[in-house]
Design goal:
The chain contains four helices and no strands. By secondary structure, it is mainly alpha-helical. The chain has one domain. The radius of gyration is 14 Å and the shape is elongated. It starts with a helix and ends with a helix.
Length: 67
Amino acid sequence: MPAAELQVTDQSERERVVRWRVQELERAGYDPDAAQSIAERLDIDLHTATDLLRDGCPPDTALRILI
């Protein structure tokens, strides 16, 4: 497979992962902008992000902790 095709496939997979993470973060209670910011940072653990809210941390504080 040529490198250009591989990059498109990898990018498409990354986009799918980011979309899924946005959905999960919004479901947990983040607003759409915060969810997008967190979702794009694949170095931020999704469980940590959702656990903060589940444990009672306000979304704006959780965002500052994570980013």
